[in-house]
Amino acid sequence: MRLRDMILAAMFAAIVAALGVFPPITLPFTPVPITAQTFGVMLAGAVLGARLGGISLSIFVLLVAIGAPILSGGRGGIPTLIGPSGGYILSWPIAALVIGFFVDRFRDKLKLWNMILFNFIGGILVVYLGGISYLAFVSDMSWWVAANSALIYIPGDAVKAVLSGMLALQLHKTAPVAKLHKEQRAA
Predict the structure, then answer these.
(1) How close are the terminal C-alpha atoms of the chain, in Å?
(2) What is the mean pLDDT of each run of 10 residues along the chain (187 residues)?
(3) What residues contact residue 75 under an 8 Å CB cut-off, 6+ apart?
(4) How far is the CA of 77 from the CAs of 27, 58, 59, 71, 111, in angstroms?
(5) Alpha helices in the chain (DSSP H)
(6) Number of domains in the chain
(7) Does the residue 186 lie in any domain?
(8) pTM for this structure?
(9) Residue 65 sits in a domain of what CATH number?
């Protein structure tokens, strides 16, 4: 891995951590808080592509696992990952990888609508599938009850998907990111 790739992966892990500064919004009927960090997950996949996006969020999850308090509300450590919100967090590298896969595949045909679609597929469907399934398992509730408790997150995540798609598309039009992806294709 080249130094620039390591820097980009670390930078996006740091962006997701920085989004954890925003306090979590807790709701009385679900143990999983609303955070701004999924915006960073979507952005990492949409800007960095599959490989670096997945690596970036894997770094983030490893930092959480070793106890770095970089989740919203200053949370971190193994207890957080095995708790009710663990499935959402553990799905973030996969989500970035999926978003990045689609972005890499359609690199020359990127439009706002498909950037938003890619964020919905990876950043919402993949994250919800992992998070809901894990929540149902650790909380000993049915999958459908866990899924119903996640409905409250959809409007905010939809806004994050649109904003991330808009920002990522703009970044793809700038020289440094466009140059990075041309070099990745050539390698």
Answers:
(1) 12
(2) 90 95 84 91 96 97 97 93 95 98 92 96 97 95 93 94 95 70 59
(3) 64, 69
(4) 22, 14, 14, 10, 38
(5) 3-19, 37-65, 78-82, 86-105, 112-119, 127-139, 143-150, 154-173, 175-186
(6) 1
(7) no
(8) 0.91
(9) 1.10.1760.20
DSSP letter at 31? E
Kindly state whether residue 110 falls inside one of the protein's structural domains: yes
Q: Is 36 helix (H, G, I), strand (E, B) or coil?
A: coil
User: Bridge partners of 27?
Assistant: 30
Residue with tokens 């592509």: 49
Cβ atoms of 31 and 150 closer than 8 Å: no
pLDDT value of position 180? 60
Q: Which two tokens stand for residue 40?
A: 């960073």
* CB within 8 Å of 172: residues ≥ 6 apart: 47, 110, 178, 181
Q: Whole domain around residue 86: which residue ranges?
A: 3-181
Tokens found for residue 11: 């930078």
Assigned domain for 187 exists: no
Chain-centroid distance, C-alpha 73 = 17
